[in-house]
Design brief:
single chain, about 160 residues, alpha/beta, eight-stranded mixed β-sheet, elongated
Length: about 160
């Protein structure tokens, strides 16, 4: 697994907003086996009931499922951030929360996102298509846009969270 950065900080988005979280960003950097990474974060202070965020598209990193298994074994809470450009992995149900970016006709199985637990985020300007294509989904839907007032009429009767960019 290629790890770009590991650090402690407050969660700045999603249902875990404001909680102390161990951030593990995947990307070009140091290569770890899932076991070595787990050992490193435990020695760095990770404990039972801590939140861990895996970001940088962990579904594309070989070993992410094993890492999630290890994190769950030590009873941490795991949140995954994904860009929606990859299919949902076989280990999909194991993390406590998913935050997935919406991609029109993307390969991720948005229907698998769980009610009141997982978030589907629209960062594009194609808000009408997002609302239409996701109206039957039970997950938490989020729109991030520059002008929140401009989408008021589209979302005022829906359970859609709107955040300013």
């Amino acid at each position: 697994m290629n790890i770009f950065k590991i650090y402690w900080g407050y969660r700045n988005f999603g249902l875990s907003y404001g909680l102390p979280t161990l951030h593990i960003e995947m990307g070009p950097g140091i290569s770890y086996s899932p076991e070595a990474l787990l050992e490193k974060v435990v020695k760095g202070g990770l404990q039972k009931d801590n939140w861990v965020l895996l970001s940088g598209n962990p579904t594309r990193e070989k070993g992410s499922g094993v890492l999630v298994d290890g994190l769950k074994f030590i009873r941490t809470k795991v949140e995954i951030e994904e860009d929606g450009k990859s299919p949902a992995p076989g280990w999909f149900p194991k993390p406590d929360r998913w935050i997935v970016d919406w991609v029109d006709k993307g390969p991720f199985n948005y229907g698998a996102l769980r009610s009141r637990q997982d978030m589907l985020v629209c960062r594009s300007s194609n808000i009408d298509t997002f609302l239409e294509s996701t109206k039957k989904l039970n997950c938490i839907k989020v729109i991030i846009c520059k002008d929140v007032v401009s989408v008021w009429e589209k979302v005022r009767c829906l359970e859609v969270r709107v955040y300013a960019k």
